[in-house]
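Same chain as my last thread, 254 residues:
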Amino acid sequence: MRCLAFLLACRALCESQTCHPDGVECHDMEDVNLLTHHQHFPHRRHEGGQKIHWWKHRRGDDSDFDVVTSESDAVACTYSKTYAYPSTVIQQDSGGVSQMDDRCSDFSYVDNTSTATCILNSNSDGYDYDVWSADRACPYPAGATEYPITTTQQQCKELYNNFTDLGDSVTWNGKTYWTGIGHGVLDGVRGNCYTASYNGNHAVIFQVDIRSWSLEITYRTLQKLYAGDPGGLCLIPDVQIINCLDIPGMPSFV
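reply #2:
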């Protein structure tokens, strides 16, 4: 009974949130479509001594299941058009997705009612650190993330500040990951972290904005993944949502 009361209280809190000021991601939903994360994070162990992370995620039917990720769990970039968190907000914008369809017409891509491919794109200085603040990156009182960790709005702000203090890059598992902020991927929400890899180059991103077909990140970081203008091209990185706390230099707990 205590668990039921807690869940009802959480639902009431989420449903009390107002829509984001930009309007494009404001949706009223009676039922939250919690996508099955197994499609993004295969439930399997990996050999070869790679680092493996475990966490619990809660299904819509209130049952828990384990999700396992490792470096090789990265998948070709897609984003959810339907995943909602908080329960009345779908943090995505599919406006102009036909541009992705055109740019990727000669490649394998996805664009349906629930999912679409995301490709590297430039927003010039729109995701430079000095343009963003912790308050802007973490706008929802309901909390910042639903997985891999759940954070309050204040904890999201603290993680954002920790992340932006990391510098231009971190060394992780013997590789250089260039740091940046920007749009989200998969079922990501503001406050999640993810890795993006393209052509053997790697980045780790703190999501501060919507999910979109147009994967826009800090410009200097984009240039590390692809040294050129991505405009008009179909550049699909491999991505993986990770625990922000696993990034070298981040705090060990929130």
